[in-house]
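Model the whole thing, not chain by chain.
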Amino acid sequence: MSRVEIFDSTLRDGAQAEGISFSVEDKLKVVKAMDEMGIEYIEAGNPGSNPKDLEFFKEVKQIQLNHSKLTAFGSTRRRNIKVTDDANVQSLLEADTQGVAIFGKSWDFHVTDIIQTTLDENLNMIKETVAFFKEKGKEVFFDAEHFFDGFKSNKEYALASLKAAKEGGADCLVLCDTNGGTMPLEVYEMTKEVAKVLPEIKVGIHAHNDSGMAVANSIMAVEAGARHVQGTYIGFGERCGNANLSTIIANLQLKKGYDCIPEEYMEHLTSTAMLIAEIANITLSEKEPFVGRSAFTHKGGMHIDGVNKASHSFEHINPEIVGNARRFLMSEVAGRSTIMKKIHKIAPEITKESDEAKQIVDRLKELEHEGYQFEGAESTFELIIRKQLGKYKSFFELENFKIIGEQPAKDSIFSSYAMVKVNVDGTEELTAAEGDGPVHALDSALRKALEVFYPSLQEVHLTDYKVRVLDSKSATAAKVRVLITSSDGKDIWSTVGVSSDIIEASLIALIDSIEVKLLRDLENKIKAYI
Amino acid sequence: MSRVEIFDSTLRDGAQAEGISFSVEDKLKVVKAMDEMGIEYIEAGNPGSNPKDLEFFKEVKQIQLNHSKLTAFGSTRRRNIKVTDDANVQSLLEADTQGVAIFGKSWDFHVTDIIQTTLDENLNMIKETVAFFKEKGKEVFFDAEHFFDGFKSNKEYALASLKAAKEGGADCLVLCDTNGGTMPLEVYEMTKEVAKVLPEIKVGIHAHNDSGMAVANSIMAVEAGARHVQGTYIGFGERCGNANLSTIIANLQLKKGYDCIPEEYMEHLTSTAMLIAEIANITLSEKEPFVGRSAFTHKGGMHIDGVNKASHSFEHINPEIVGNARRFLMSEVAGRSTIMKKIHKIAPEITKESDEAKQIVDRLKELEHEGYQFEGAESTFELIIRKQLGKYKSFFELENFKIIGEQPAKDSIFSSYAMVKVNVDGTEELTAAEGDGPVHALDSALRKALEVFYPSLQEVHLTDYKVRVLDSKSATAAKVRVLITSSDGKDIWSTVGVSSDIIEASLIALIDSIEVKLLRDLENKIKAYI
C-alpha cells in the first residue's frame, strides 16, 4: 500500500480557532493522543511568535513518543537580514524538534504588497532558511503559503518559490490553500502540474475550509500525487477551520487504500475525536463524518429496514471499523423490530409477540404522544424498559422540593433557591442550594443531598442541556422537552424529560441521569464480583 | 451566465436529521424563507410515508410564492402492481404540487436484495411511474438512488435506470450518492459519463456528507455537466447531513460564475442560514463556510495585519457579499452599514459617522457579546435603537416579582405561582397568578396587572416561545436565549431576552413584547390624529 504521511497541526493552526486555548497540560494530552493514534508528525507550536510555545517544547521532551515526530512552525527569515540574525529562526532552533515547517510566500502579490520586498529576495529568504535548518539536521517542510492563489496570479513565480525550497534541500513541499478559497478541480490540476514539474520531491497539501472543501481538496491533492497531508484532528482552526484529519484518514485508508496510520488503530478514530473535543472544550458535531454521534444513525423506516437486511445498503462503511456505532432512532417511523433489539440487550428471552413486549411498545407510544422523543436519549429508554419489566429499583426517592425565585425590588438582582428532601432506604436528607436560575439551583441541591449517600456522583457533570418547546403555539404554557447529557469522564449518557413545566421536565431528566450513573456503578460492581 | 437550479430539501431530507422535527408553522416559515432567497424548488414533504405532510401541502397553498416551485417526494410504484393502484403514488398526486421527485433504484443489488424484484420490473416501475406523473402535467425529477454505488457495481444497469426515467419523460435525472461514500473524482468521472451517454437531458446531483464530501461532490458534478443541485439550506439531514446549499450557492455563484439565485439576494445568505437554524432549533456551527459567525474572524496578528493591508490577502471573498461580517478577535470592527439601514427607519437624519450611530453600534456589540442575536427579533432591535436615541419612554415599570414552585409531597403535583407589582405613571398594581411552570405564571400575572391600565393587551397572545441554550457545555448554569413571537391578530412581532436564568431571559422578552404592542397602539393613534 502506498503511504500518505499525516501531519497534525491541532496545537498550532488549531489553536488559531476562535474560542480555543490550550494549557500546557492540554497540549501534552493532545501530543499523547496523536502518538497513540500513530500520527506521523505533530506540529506542536510556533515558538517564534509565542514564547509560551518554547516552554512547552522543553516540557514535551519528557514524553516518550512511539510513533510521532515533533515539529515546530515558523517563518522564513525576514527580508534583508542574515538567517542567523533572525530571532524567529533562533527560536525555532531552540524548540529542538526533529522537524520544522517553514512557511514562505509563493503569491507574488503577497511578496510585493504584504511583506513588501522584491521577488528575488523572497526566493533567497526561502532557500537560505530551508538550507539553514537542513544543515542543522532537521527534516524540513516548506509550507508554500497561498500556493494556489499564487499559481493563478503568477504560475512561474509560485513554482519558483517551490524550486527555491527544493534547492535549499527541503524534504517536502507543502501546497497551502491559506485562504481556503480554491475549488477541488483546481487543486487537482495544479497539484498534478507541481508533481510533473518537480517529480523527485515529496509534495504535501495544507487546506482550509472556507469553501467547505478542505477535506475534498486534501483528497484531490493525493489523487494528483501528494503524499503528505496537513490538517487538525477534528478540523478546528482559524475561520472555518483546517482540513479534518479524522475524515481524511478514514477516506484515504478505507476508501482509497492508502496507508496513513497503523491498521489496528483505526478503531480508535472515534474515541480519539471525542477526547480531542473534550481537551479543547468544544462540542464535537453530531454529524461529523465517521466519528460523529449521528454518523451511523438511521431515522427513516425504509433505511432501517434496508440496514437490517444488509448494512451496506444504507451505510458507506461498517461503523465498527472506526469505533463508532450504528443507532436506530426511536421515532414513530421505526417499527417494533428496532425496539426489540433494545429490549434484547436487557432481557434476551422476551419475544416479539409476548405481553411484555406489547406493554413496552404501548408505554413508549403513550410517552411519544406526550411529547417524548427517545432519539439521543437511549438511557431514559433503557430505564423505561427496565421499569416495565420490573427489573429496576430506584436508588432514591425525591420526597418533596420547593423553588423560590425573586427580584425583591426594581433593578435588584434576581435570585433562585431550591430546597429538596431525598430519601435513601429510609434515611432522609434535606438540603438547599442557590443557582443561576431555578433548574441550576434544583440540580445543585439534588446532587448535594445525594452525594451524602453516593459519593461517586461527584464524578458526574452535565455536558449538555437542551430545551425544545413543543407545540410552540401555546407559547409559555406549551410543553417543553429537556434533553440532558451527562458524563463521568468514562461514559456519556443522555436522558429526557417532558412536561408543560420546564422545572419538572428538567427534574425528570436529572433524576434519570443520576439513576443511570448509579445503575452503571452497580453493574460494574456485579461484573467485578462475577 | 450558465444556470444551475437549486432544489432545497430542508423540509424532506432535512427532517430526517436526528433531533429535527418541524411543526406546520415551522414548515411554512421555511417555505417563505426559501422563496425569499429565490430558491427554485422546495421539496416540502413525503406525503406517502407521512400523512401529516399531506395536511401541510393543503395549508401551504395559502402562501403566495414569488420564486419557488413546490415539489413532493415519493417512491416509484411498488413491484407487480399498476401505478394507479399504488397508495403512495396517489398521495403524491393528492399533494398537488407543481413538481414531483420520484426515487427509484439504480443499484442492481438493491433491486434484487432489498426490494426483491427483477431488474426488468424495476425499470418498468421507474418508467411507468415517471410517465404517470408526466401525463398529469408535473415537472418530474428522477432521483436515481445509490447511483454511484450502482455505477460501480453494474454500470450498464445504473445507466439503464436513467434511460428508463428518460423514456418515461423525466425532466431531470438526479444522481444520488445516497450513502455519501463516493469520492469527488469518482463523482466527476461518472457524472461526465452520464452527460456523455445522455446528452439531451438535464442532470442533477444529490449528495450526502458521510465522507465529508457533499459540497465538493456537488461542485464536481456541476464541473462535469450537472445543472441541478439538491441539498438542504444549512446541510442538516440524516446521519452526517445533506449537501449544504448555502455553501454550494456561494461557491457556484461567486467562484464559478454560475447563476443560482438572483444576485441581489446573495447578501441574505447569512441571515437566512441563521433563520433556518432558529426555526429548526439547532445551533449553526460558528465555522460554517460563508455564513458562520467565525467564517471571517481573524485571530492571528499577521492575518489581521494582512487583511488591513488588503482584505483579499487572507479572505477568499468579501464577507459583505454574503451578508456576513469580518471580525478581528483583538479589536472588533463590525459591519456598520447593515445597522445604519435599521437606524434610518427610525431616525433618517443620523449619519454613519455620528456619535449616536457609534453608541448604538457599541451597545449592540455589547449585547451580542452577552449572547443576544437579533435575527428574527427585529422588535427588540428597534427598542434598543429607540432607547439609545432617547426616542422611547417605557409604558410601565416592573417594581418587583416573586416566583414560587413547589411539590409539597412525593407524587403530588408541582405548582407554580407568580406575584408581580407594576407601576404605571405612579399608580401601583399588585397581582398574583398561577401557571404551567414559572414562566407561564409570570406571563399571566404580568398581563393581568397591566390590562388594568392597557385593555388592548387582551388582544395579545404569544404565538411562539423558543428557548436556546447558549454554550451548552456549562449545562444548567449556561446562558439561555428566549425568543418570543407575539400577535394581536393584525401584527406579528418577535422579541428576545438573554440571561443565565431562563426566568429572567423570558421576562426580558415578555416585557419587550408588551412594550412593542403599546408602542404600535400609540403610533396608530398618532397616525389617526395627523
